[in-house]
Amino acid sequence: MGQPFHQHLFPPVKKLVWQYDMIREGDKIALGLSGGKDSLVALYTLSRLRQMIPVTYSLEAIAVDMGWPGVDWGPVAAYCESLGLPFTLVPSRLGEILFAARRETNPCSLCAKIRRGLLHSQAKINGSNVVALGHTSDDAIETVFLNMFYAGRIDCFKPANNLDRTGLRLIRPLLYVSERTTALVAKKLGLPVRENPCPANGKSKRQAVKEVLARQRLEDKFADARLLAAVKGLWDSQARQGLL
């Protein structure tokens, strides 16, 4: 181990994994790899975690290619190989369909839904029973505000849940880890982080929420801790109702 950032990474991940029974003996986990810092750190974490917890599980990476010209997945594939992990690239024309054919003005929700479908289908083909995503605590907090601002409800995705239509289990092991930590880990390890070439990057509703929260953090250094505590309260409430 020995890396100074590990104290901000593995303890919260292990706590969350045990709290929500995320990883079980014999699981075959497929991690959805976007090439961004969060998913790459999630891959690194789950790879190393196999030596830290008394549970035997296998791990693979699956990436959905949007079809953007000039995108090189070679460094990401090489990183997976360095970890001894299988890597599957799922080709698609999703970028062209959303932006050229359909000319979507707010494509993020539809894009995410289709990418999830492709990821889940490939995970089933590969024989995995669990899909892992690299969502961080920032993502959870932002999602609560997105739902309040744009859907008029207080809700957030769950740390773990069963996907009834596919028979897969979905887990998000980084939800107690901040984006600040994933950025630090990615930099320290020299991970092959890929810039997001999507035309909607930085122009979405989520980006607007990010900017609101960034201003709040400048005024209150405890903002993230309080907001994450509120999200945890939401998950606890869902658990008591049998929704987790």
Find the CATH superfamily.
Answer: HUPs
Q: Could you say which overall geometry the principal axes of the C-alpha atoms support?
A: globular
Order of helices and strands: HEHEHEHHEHEEHHH
End-to-end Cα distance, whole Å, is 33 Å
What is the domain tally?
1
Sheet bearing the most strands, described?
A: 6 strands, mixed
Radius of gyration: 18 Å
Structural class: alpha/beta
Overall description:
With 244 residues, this protein is an alpha/beta fold. The chain has a single domain, classed as 3-Layer(aba) Sandwich (Rossmann fold), CATH 3.40.50.620. Helices cover 48% and strands 11% of the residues. Helix 6 packs across helix 8 and helix 6 crosses helix 9. The radius of gyration is 18 Å and the shape is globular. The model has no long low-confidence stretch (mean pLDDT 91).
